[in-house]
Write a structure and sequence with these properties.
By secondary structure, the protein is mainly α. The protein has one domain. The chain is built from three helices and no strands. The protein has helices at 2-61, 64-73, 98-103. The termini are far apart.
Length: 105
């Protein structure tokens, strides 16, 4: 009877080893998938934040304040009755055509 229990125990342990390795492998795979889900969730959050910032920038670009700033700073335009004063740069640059200074400050 004692020998039978010993052989049964050895057989049960031998049969349970592959199951133990399978459980360990599945736990590792689950941990990897959880890390991947967290990484992708963070990517989605970052993309949503970027989209929010882009929408805010687009709203600003459609506003009159942006048009006014762009016209005054980049195009060097003025309103009726105003005088535009362009200060030459402090350092000498290579010679450029006058309209390049007007269009590309």
């Amino acid at each position: 009877m004692n020998r039978l229990l010993i052989w049964f125990s050895v057989a049960a342990i031998t049969l349970s080893l592959p199951l133990a390795f399978n459980i360990a492998a599945r736990l590792q795979a689950e941990a990897r998938m959880s890390a991947e889900v967290e990484r992708m969730t963070q990517q989605v959050r970052d993309a949503e934040d970027r989209l929010t910032r882009l929408r805010a920038a687009l709203d600003y670009a459609r506003s009159d304040a942006f048009v006014e700033r762009w016209a005054r700073v980049h195009a060097r335009w003025s309103r009726a009755g105003e005088v535009v004063v362009v200060v030459p740069p402090a350092t000498e640059r290579e010679p450029r055509i006058w309209w390049e200074d007007f269009l590309y400050p």
